[in-house]
Amino acid sequence: MTGKLKAAIVGCGSVSTGYFPFVSETFDLVATADLIVDRAKEMARIWGAQRAYDSMDALLAHEDLDAVFILTAMSSHNQLVLKAIEAGVSFLVQKPFTTDLQAGIQAVKLARAKGLKGLVEPNSFQSPVMLKAKEIIAEGHIGRPLYVRGYVERGFIPQWGGLNFYEREGGGILFDMGVYPISELITLLGP
Prior knowledge:
Blueprint: E1 6-10, H1 20-26, E2 28-33, H2 37-47, E3 51-53, H3 56-62, E4 67-70, H4 77-86, E5 90-93, H5 101-113, E6 118-120, H6 128-138, H7 164-169, H8 172-189
Parallel strand pairs: 1-2, 1-4, 2-3, 4-5, 5-6
Helix pairs in contact: 4-5, 6-8
């Protein structure tokens, strides 16, 4: 018995590589899942998970989890979050939480009703730099901001599939990269 919460990672693609070190150190990483089961098996082998599955359904049917990290394609997030909630498992999901506001509201209500915790990445707005900037603005050290501009540049990364990625996933650049400046500006200046 490790005393750590039991967790699994669903989605073992490029985004997951940033999560595996943290999850395997902080949690008892018991399983992985990916539609490409060989990828799930390889990540399980590398990071010490006991089992690998080809779907979240199979994972939830066989594992007793405290938390699941959902790091899959954007279009699957809401469906997988609902499966985690139905199974009574707290979750962290990559952005966007959902591409439908009402579906997101419903998922939050269901999670709260079951006493589950949910976290949506990115959390860059909680970085020490952002929190210090928020404090400086709130204390009036720079006066009242009258204009702000957010900017994100995304270079071409072949593994991400180029621009057709946005067409396939829906929401375009706004849901993939636009969330960073939007969430940070809301943190700094309010909604």
